[in-house]
Amino acid sequence: MLLGGGVALALLWAPEDADQGASQRIFYIHVPIALTAYAMFGWGAWKALRLLGKREERYDLESYTAVHMGVIFGVLTLVSGSIWARASWGVWWDWRDNQLVLFLILFLFYSAYFMLRYSLAPGASRANISAVYALFGVVLIPVSFLAIRLAESFLHPGPVVLTRDVGENVPGSMLLTFCVCLAGMLALAAALYRSELLGKRVDARLRELREALA
Amino acid sequence: MTGYLRDVAALARKDLLLELRGRDTLPAMLLFVVAMLVAFRFALPREVEGAAEGLLWVAIVFTALLGLTRAFVPEREQGVLDALVLAPADRSAIWLGKVIAVFAFLVAVEAIAVPAFWIFFAPLGWATVAAILLANVGICTVGALLAAMAAAGRARELLMPLLFLPLAIPIVIGGVGATVVAEPGRYLGFLALYDAVFAILAWATFEYVVVE
Prior knowledge:
The complex is a heterodimer.
Chain A: H1 2-13, H2 26-54, H3 57-89, H4 98-119, H5 124-155, H6 172-213
Chain B: H1 2-22, H2 26-43, H3 51-71, H4 73-77, H5 80-86, H6 92-120, H7 126-152, H8 156-180, H9 185-210
Helix pairs in contact in B: 1-6, 2-3, 2-6, 3-6, 3-7, 3-8, 6-7, 7-8, 7-9, 8-9
């Protein structure tokens, strides 16, 4: 956990050596957050798959925690992307930004995950249904991405002038900073995931004990 | 395999017979879609190119949602689902039977809605019809599974739209694309891909949704 905090600090000073405009620097925060959110959704789906395969109860909580973390990072992506859009294009929201639209869809999808979970009675059935839903989510990511790319051609015809990929001619220092930020963000997510999981496990144990006593 | 298909046919037949006798869902879907088209007429103050076609897809998705919300309610309420799960048949047959039944409802509703759209708004090409049929497959495969999920919960009527709409956004994109673009091949291909991917996924995972 300390490691996560340490690298997160690195994340704060690392953008100093960016030699582009100030708004460009949010890139170092925004993109790692987005990638981390994907990673957490993927991790949640992987745990869901393990749950369905092995039917061990602990995977349920792990999958839930991973999706929980993914949603938090997803919201951060939306916020940071929105700030970036404000800084570089002058609007808070731009439908031309595929990544942001994708995250909005995913955010809606995974918010429904929580609604679904809370409406079901705890037990094996809830674990299974949540796991299946998490699997659907990870399949929805590429499908939605493809769909949004396709939608470009009828929503805004003509060449899209936005070029936001850092592309090929990236100076080494920027790439290094980016990698450090990505590693930091992943470590932060992993640390949060672990502490959250621990908290949820303690919570579950406590509930069990309380029920045993009552 | 023939046994599997027989199970599926029996389950689909059961749903269709229930609907024929009870007439719960189909008239509601029909009235809903026509009322929606009328409301859309007034939601478009000016003629905007392609706007009406976009609304057709909204109408289709919401009408399907109306039917899907009810799809597993009779089973859950009367404990039929438990009996079906215990029956010596593959569980995915339950899902496939439901998909076929909902697909039939949806096609029946669209057989009225699409001509109505034609009269109220604008003529539609063959690509739109093909896209609607492809989209129906996707809506039914995903929707039947989600309906089984939602029916297990407390707030099923509330839950179903929340679960379904984010997954239906790619269908709307593909459908609208196929309707408004001159060369719809890519969009039809995308819809077919969506159908294939989610049909396999739903077919493989349905068992876990109904088994405790």
